Amino acid sequence: MKYLKLKKIFGVFLTCTLLFVVCMLPAAAGNMIGRVDTATSPLRVRMGPGTTHDLVYSNKVLVQIPKGDYITILDTVPCDDSSASSNPIWYYMTAKFNGATVKGYVSATYVTIIDDGSEEGGGQEPGVDEGQVSGGTADLSEVPDIYKPYLAGIMVRHPNWKFEFFYTGLDWNTVIKNETTLGRSLTSRTRDGYRSKMLGAYNPATGEYIAQDGSSWFQAANAVVEYYMDPRNSMTDARIFQFERLSYEAGVQTLSGIQNILKGSFMENATILTDDGRRVTYAQAIMEAAQTSGASPYHLAARIIQEVGRNGSGSTSGTYVGKDGTSYAGYYNFYNIGASSSADPIATGLSWAKGGTTYNRPWTSPYKSIVGGAQYIARNYINEGQDTQYLQKFDVESEYNGLYWHQYMTNIEAAYSESNTMYKNYVQSGLLESEIIFKIPVYNNMPVVCHLPDFATGDVRGNRRGDANDDGSVSAADYAIVKDAAVEFDYIATDGNTFIARDVNDDGAIDAFDAAELDLIIHGLK
């Protein structure tokens, strides 16, 4: 493929020189040392650079670095979530907590640099070529200039990860113009500040936004599209997984890895019948789907959860009745393929699953849907060059019938949020340091990195996140509700008020982290 220039870069171990990112600090001779300078309360440590990432625990104790304590800064990274406007820069750091060494991310807002790591006289170490990380074999000159400061730290932390660069040849402004076409990139009704006021998306006479898909999805503003399209905003340990290659890799992707992804879902430990009468677990069915289609089983498992939720939906029930009264009993669509924008997307998806004979259709069983849907995804996306979550959201791959229109999802945050899910899956399954290949697109004339616009963090009625009982305040009563919901892994439709109120840290799940976050709010520590 003439437009794809592969550059496989191997990460290296950090010794004495680290190229710091985002703020564009010069190469230093050692790590920076910072002092925690919060107003009164200790500084919490998170799993990623942003306030929506999970908090870090050590021996089941919430990690909080006291004011005045020192941290060692290993990397400087951009915030990768909606808190960027107030906390744009984060530090990946290590510190001592209760006698243990902990690592994680803290906001640079609350840290004062007391040692920038440079030696007297400054400058580069002798024998280290410009563009290299000292002590290793990775030549940063092989990385596109716009990505060098963003990838250096990731390569150091994960020496087994490999990177390919997809040179699209496309002009950035042309790409944004096409990706902001009405109906192509949508945002949830919970993101008030993300909505566009372009023609067809907003009625200035009534002051109302015009839904583009059902009643919950609206055109995303141009600045929001630019943010999620710019790969530099996703070059953190978690968010970079939207660039993970989604092909099946025998021996790398395992059954236990799939089982970890399915934990807490309706598919965990459940069994279904195959076409030939065997009874298998959902994990086994997904692995068989991967082997026959060529798609990553991890991707397939995560995609099902992204599309139908951890509790499943009408698409997976086999008993769905459409809003017009049409029965779709006995039909399944685990990936919501064909569920196009309409007042009843589940019905349109099940209608697609019922009609036709391609891809193992009609899908009259969960197994048929899982295997046939995998074939559809692989044939129409992965095997045609759209082999990352990012490329399935943003069609900048011209190999398959042109550009821009062939996109699996309209949700502007879909690839971005799925990346966090995949990162957690790799962490929980112990596979994070295995060989993982990332394919990152490169555009011409890319601008200075932009941040997300501010938006309200309350639910659709303006209630504060954490007000689980909807009484207008956040109190111990809400804590009890969230705690109970966490025990039951209370995944609720993402556009529902209950979900938003209980999903305190806004990570798409209700779990122990939400209870911990709410506890801090109640006691005035947040």
Could you please describe the fold and organization of this structure?
The chain is of the alpha+beta class and 526 residues long. It is built from 14 helices and 18 strands. The chain has helices at 148-157, 172-179, 222-229, 255-262, 282-293, 297-308, 314-317, 345-354, 366-380, 389-393, 414-428, 476-487, 497-502, 512-522; strands at residues 32-36, 43-44, 57-58, 61-62, 64-65, 70-78, 89-97, 100-107, 111-115, 162-171, 186-188, 202-203, 208-209, 211-213, 217-219, 271-273, 279-281, 437-444. The chain has a 5-stranded antiparallel β-sheet, with no helix packed on it. A 3-stranded antiparallel β-sheet has the order 11-15-14, with no helix packed on it. The longest helix is centred in the C-terminal third of the chain and has 15 residues, at 366-380.
